[in-house]
Structure formats: structure tokens, C-alpha cells
Amino acid sequence: MLKMMAASKGLVTHGVSSCQGCGIELIIRNVLDVLGEDTVLVIPPGCAALFSGTGPEAAVKLAGIQGNLENSAAIASGIAAGFRHQGNEHTTVCAFCGDGATVDIGLQSLSGAMERNENILYICYDNEAYMNTGIQGSSSTPLGASTTTTPAGKPVGSKDLIQIVMAHGVPYAATASVADLGDLRRKVKKAKGIKGCRVLHIHCPCPTGWGYHSSKTIELAREGVDSGAWVLMEYENGRVKLGRRPSKLGHAEDYMKLQKRFRTAVGELTAQTNERIISRYEYLEKLERLGGE
Hints:
Elements: H1 2-7, H2 23-35, E1 39-42, E2 63-65, H3 72-85, E3 92-98, H4 100-104, H5 107-116, E4 121-126, H6 161-167, E5 172-177, H7 181-192, E6 198-203, H8 207-210, H9 217-227, E7 233-236, E8 239-242, H10 253-257, H11 268-289
Parallel strand pairs: 1-2, 1-3, 3-4, 4-6, 5-6
Antiparallel strand pairs: 5-7, 7-8
Helix pairs in contact: 2-7, 3-5
């Protein structure tokens, strides 16, 4: 591993043992390429723990820590406070966490950091379940999706993380997707240049947990954006700005049929999903028109 790290370009080594088609490696390589070497990572247990470590097993060339599942935002806040005490205003403290560590177990810690406007960048890569521990359902698992804890399909919808973040009035938040790396990199660069608590919510398809061929990750992510199942948007200084309008808004059938986890979500559940997508998008459009106030 040490030889591979020495030979590899960028801040992530070659040979990371992520699943084939996993979006996390693509995300973290692009995120760190934009953030650069002057960055400290906080990574909780989860799929992204493949990149952290304290010895030759580490897959990133940066200082960092792997803490507990529930307190990444608190750890990042403490590191940022230490830098502030030392007069260091330039190092980016980045928490890189899954949806379980964000919308479920870590939500209280993140809420506190947002309330205090800690000078951290919090990134949630969202594969919509606890993939690392057995594909259990999380608060980010969508309506109708099958997991090991919702084998017949989740009977309720998911938490809307970006609206929870917006309710805290952070200086900057945005959603992104592996379907558009240019957009993702632009938002990471923008977040890097802002002080205070910044939150990025990135859609991260999972071939293992979602049940699709590993070669289809980008295609699937694109279908999610096109249908409106994943909306690209920004929230800055109290204002909402939507990305390009979904080309197939409210028609998530093509997106869902690519995934085995939706094999039980037919008929009424599919219709409910499309209704939810349209309703949420219209609400976000209203916020955009009103200036997010």
C-alpha cells in the first residue's frame, strides 16, 4: 500500500477496495482534488472508512481521524476550534459521512454544528441505506425501497436533508451528483471559499445495495436527476437556486426499474413517488421565486 501511495497521483491512492461501480471513490477523488493538501478529514465508520486509517492501510495522503458514527460534526468542530485558537484560518476541515451518519445517528451533532455555524465543510455521500453494515434502511431510504430491514419496501418516505440544513440558515449548502462531476467540483470549490458551516449533499448510487449492474452507476445517477428524484440546487445567504430543470420531472419509472430494490414498488407506490417528486420540486421552485425567504 505504501508503494502504491507513493506511485499514485492525487490525494487518493490506487487500489482502494471499494465495490465495483461505487460512487464514493469517484466523489472523494474529485472532492480532494479541489480541496487540496491543506485539508483535514473526519470520516466515521461506514463505506468511506475504506479511505481512512492510522497506518499503511490509509488510502488518502491527508491528516485525518476516524471517530464514532454519531459525532463527526462535533469532531470536525473541535478540530476547527483548535485551528482557530492557533490562528489558522486556511486549513479546510472536512467531514465526509454517509447518510446513516448524517440523517440518522449523526443528525443531532450536525444540527449543533450548523446552529453554531462552525467553520467546517460537511459532506454527506448519500447511498440511501446503511450499506457498510448490511444494507439496513436509513432515514434517507426512499419510499418503496427494499432493504434488509424493510424487505417488503420502505412504507414511508425519506427525510429531506437539504431542507433541514436550510432551516438552520447556514451560509452555504448544495446538492450534487456523480452524474455531473463538473457541477460537483464547482460547488466544492465554492464551499471551500466560504467561512462557516457548509453542507454538501451528494447522490451516490450503490450497485450492491440498490441492485443494479456496476457499469450503470452514472446512467442511474443521471436518471435520478432527470426524473427529479434527485434535485440539483444551491442555498446561499438565505436564497435557493435550482439547477437545470429535470427533463422527465415526475416520471421516475425508468430510474426505479433499473434497481432491484424497487421490485415491490409498483402501481400505487410508484404513483406516490412521482407525486412526491412533483410536489417537492414545485415547493423548491416557489422558494426560488421568493428568494428563499
